[in-house]
Design brief:
By secondary structure, this protein is mostly helical. It has 3 helices and 2 strands, in the order αββαα. The protein has one domain. Strands 1-2 form a two-stranded antiparallel sheet.
Length: about 150
Amino acid sequence: MVKLIVFLLSFQLIFLPALVYADDTPKATYIQKGKKAPFDGTLLNAPAVAKILADKKVAKEKCDENTNYLLSRQKAACKRDYDLLKSKSTITEKQLNDIIAIKNKQIKKTEEMAIKAAKSNNPLLWSLIGAAAGIATTIGLVFLIKGVQD
């Protein structure tokens, strides 16, 4: 019988404290001034404080994850836009260089034609042709005026 009593007392000493402190439900109590507290407020037990702190930590982690996600998404969008603008700029630069090359060829060809035309023209010939045309016009007008007066 003594063994049974020792066993029961040992059992109670081992497991009874665990049962007493096993109540981990968060609890909050309102304490009014004058009731063992120097001010009005809310009294929280350890599990309630732990829950609040854990919730705060989880909320911060979620916020950080969301911020990192949005930041990485924004960086990807900026990189995409930058790459697109860079490729457009490269294409536009190539087009402008091609247009400038074509215009330079056209200018060179026009200069060559002007130089060739200047070398092939004989100024004395054109002066004689201009003088002959002027004399012929004058003679024609004189005959025309005489014919009208008669």
